[in-house]
């Protein structure tokens, strides 16, 4: 299997890997620092904290819904590396504004930066996946996708942990420095000119989005894959929204524990990303997808049990990290969280590799962009659902149980995807025999 860690020694992969890592690190350093400031310094009740988290998540996702079609068109009609360099230059300005928001504890300025980061990620996202089949061999794509996903969640790990350990001033300076480093690594990404026939750009956001989805979703395998990935991200958006208030108001722990909680989640997804590549032996397949997300439902239920039976800290106090880790239900909470993340990584990584290998190379960016549009819509629904359930008084444990139900539904979609893939393989065998 060629697609392995040795890709990190090649120029056709390492600069993209480093640029992606630095970008994901910066996004999460800033967003986590902002959420911790809002949760522990600005707001003082669970409803306001969950609502702020939902608003921030929604603003970050909104550009994916609005601009993914345009970003996919640009990525398929221009040199992808040129777009990366433009995007990373803009990131420096975004982080300057966002850092000012952190220093002033300005909610409007911080949320504006989150919205701008969403735009930044909308244009970078299709490119990072579309570059892989263009720069890598066919049997390297799954391994490269796994490494990119693993690096993303390792970056989330580093960003979330660091945000809980440094003050706002340090986070502000570091965010700008990392943006500059990302600009430097982007300069080393090899050229990636368009491979297909040049098509005229459609600047009408709604029309172009509709056309892009229609052109992609009519393929049964892609339709099922995009729906399954979208359900996963809807689930993920709810979990990410609920984690900070869960830690503070149910587990009654301080902000360092909130960062560690997200860090465990990130480590787990990274483990799952690498593990599924090993299990599949580099072959792009949805074979384990249904079982992975069904197992994810079980771990969510176990997390709910840990939360329901948690003994809180004395009134007016919060558990420190050491106190949290020695709590008699801490092991169940942490192992459940790790299990949710590992199975999530095992579920979603092959599906992303599937998106980029099912279509022709010149169509990969548009396919990823179509996926991003549907994903972003699902994540917005997840954010609205989390906020709505909180507003009508549903407990955090109740929200977690609703996530478990969503996992079972997603397992059904994954099973349909695997079946459609197997049917397609049989059809191809018959065609080859004829």
UniProtKB/TrEMBL annotation:
InterPro entries: MFS (IPR011701), MFS_trans_sf (IPR036259). Gene3D superfamilies: MFS general substrate transporter like domains (1.20.1250.20). Keywords: Cell membrane, Membrane, Transmembrane, Transmembrane helix, Transport. The chain crosses the membrane at residues 50-71, 83-103, 170-190, 222-241, 257-276, 288-311, 331-355, 367-386, 392-415. It is a multi-pass membrane protein. It is found in: Cell membrane. Pfam families: MFS_1. This is MFS transporter.
């Amino acid at each position: 299997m060629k697609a392995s860690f040795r890709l990190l020694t090649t120029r056709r992969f390492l600069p993209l890997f480093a640029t992606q890592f630095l970008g994901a690190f910066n996004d999460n350093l800033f967003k986590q620092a902002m959420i911790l400031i809002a949760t522990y310094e600005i707001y003082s009740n669970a409803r306001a904290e969950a609502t702020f988290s939902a608003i921030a998540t929604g603003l970050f996702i909104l550009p994916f819904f609005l601009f993914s079609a345009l970003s996919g068109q640009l990525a398929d009609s221009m040199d992808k590396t040129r777009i990366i360099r433009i995007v990373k230059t803009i990131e420096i300005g975004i982080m300057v504004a966002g850092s000012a928001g952190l220093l002033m504890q300005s909610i409007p300025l911080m949320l504006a930066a989150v919205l701008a980061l969403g735009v930044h990620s909308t244009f970078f996202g299709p490119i990072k996946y579309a570059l892989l089949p263009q720069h890598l061999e066919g049997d390297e794509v799954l391994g490269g996708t796994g490494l990119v996903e693993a690096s993303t969640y390792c970056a989330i790990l580093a960003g979330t942990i660091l945000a809980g350990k440094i003050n706002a001033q340090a986070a502000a300076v570091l965010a700008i420095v990392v943006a500059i480093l990302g600009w430097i690594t982007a300069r080393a990404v090899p050229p990636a000119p368009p491979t297909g026939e040049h098509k005229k750009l459609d600047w009408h956001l709604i029309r172009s989005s509709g056309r892009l989805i229609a052109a992609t979703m009519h393929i049964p395998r892609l339709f099922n894959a995009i729906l399954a990935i979208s359900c996963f991200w809807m689930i993920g958006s709810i979990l990410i929204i609920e984690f900070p208030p869960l830690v503070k108001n149910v587990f009654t722990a301080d902000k360092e524990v909130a960062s560690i909680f997200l860090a465990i989640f990130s480590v787990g997804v990274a483990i799952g990303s690498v593990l599924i590549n090993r299990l599949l032996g580099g072959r792009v397949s949805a074979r384990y997808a249904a079982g992975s997300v069904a197992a994810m439902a079980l771990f969510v239920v176990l997390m709910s049990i840990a939360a329901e039976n948690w003994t809180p800290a004395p009134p007016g106090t919060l558990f420190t990290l050491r106190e949290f880790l020695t709590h008699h239900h801490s092991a169940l909470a942490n192992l459940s969280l790790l299990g949710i993340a590992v199975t999530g990584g095992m579920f979603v990584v092959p599906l992303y590799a599937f998106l980029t290998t099912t279509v022709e190379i010149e169509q990969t960016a548009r396919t990823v962009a179509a996926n991003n549009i549907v994903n972003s819509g699902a994540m917005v629904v997840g954010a609205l659902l989390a906020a709505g359930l909180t507003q009508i008084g549903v407990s955090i444990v109740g929200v977690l149980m609703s996530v478990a139900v969503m996992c079972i539904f997603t397992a059904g979609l994954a099973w349909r995807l695997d079946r459609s893939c197997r049917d397609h393989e049989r059809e191809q065998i018959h065609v080859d025999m004829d």
